[in-house]
Design brief:
CATH class: Mainly Alpha
Strand content: under 5%
CATH architecture: Orthogonal Bundle
Number of helices: 10
Largest sheet: none
Number of domains: 1
Radius of gyration: 24 Å
Number of strands: 0
Distance between the termini: 69 Å
Order of helices and strands: HHHHHHHHHH
Helix content: 55-70%
Length: about 250
């Protein structure tokens, strides 16, 4: 004979099987399905990913259908106005501006997406652990973040770029080293709120490991905030790449 715990709705009761109160995702299914369920409910996160996808299509698929010569200068076509042959006109050396935007967008997106992905992963794990554990661990981890935030990002990027030989992998690491701080602070705030929810407390009471709780409950329920911040990190990484002169 099956038993029903006090306070637990019966299987056939109204509302059974819905997500717990407080924004928790359903307990069943894989972690990726849980993350997707939370993500699609955040319109800003969906919009941010959609914008990034449009940028990818424009930069990488655009040159396949719109062929331009971005190698040889054409002095006879300097500073042409937008028209049928050149929708955005040409620049001061005869390059098609639209094709130039597509070509430059490729290197910018490679650096931007790679640095944003690395920064988001590091910042999410750092902030989730700090917010979930709390206490002295949280204080020490966030003092590290505050200390690095005290250094102006531009000076930090220029300093690292002058020490190391500039290349695409080095540039990605340099930008990510600065960019992970903002996701860490945001995710830490989400983790402090989520660690008091009933499903987290129940997982702890049932003997769930802290790593499992962070990856299974804390991170998936903060995915909306993480994705929105990640889209901003892409823009920041592209701007840092432009400042660095790469």
């Amino acid at each position: 004979m099956s038993m029903i715990l006090a306070g637990e709705p019966a299987p056939d009761a109204p509302g059974a099987g819905l997500a717990p109160a407080g924004g928790a995702v359903p307990a069943g299914g894989s972690a990726w399905r849980m993350i997707l369920a939370v993500f699609v409910r955040n319109r800003l996160a969906v919009l941010g990913v959609g914008i990034v996808i449009l940028m990818l299509v424009f930069s990488f698929l655009g040159p396949v259908f719109y062929h331009t010569d971005q190698v040889h200068t054409r002095l006879s076509q300097i500073n042409l106005a937008p028209g049928h042959a050149h929708p955005l006109g040409t620049n001061d050396v005869g390059y098609d501006v639209l094709g130039r935007l597509m070509l430059s967008g490729q290197s910018s997106i490679i650096v931007g997406l790679s640095a944003a992905l690395l920064a988001t992963i590091v910042g999410t794990l750092w902030g989730a652990v700090a917010g979930y554990v709390g206490g002295a661990v949280d204080a020490v981890m966030m003092r590290v973040v505050d200390s690095m935030l005290a250094i102006p990002p531009l000076i930090f990027i220029l300093l690292l770029a002058s020490v190391f030989r500039v290349s695409t992998p080095v540039l990605i690491l340099v930008v990510a080293l600065v960019a992970w701080l903002a996701p860490a602070r945001l995710v830490r705030g989400e983790a402090i709120s989520l660690r008091t929810r009933e499903y987290v407390q129940m997982a702890k009471a049932m003997g769930g490991r802290h790593v499992w709780i962070v990856l299974r409950h804390i991170t998936p329920n903060a995915i909306g905030t993480i994705v929105v911040q990640a889209t901003f990190e892409v823009a920041n990484a592209i701007e840092s790449r432009r400042i660095d002169g790469k």
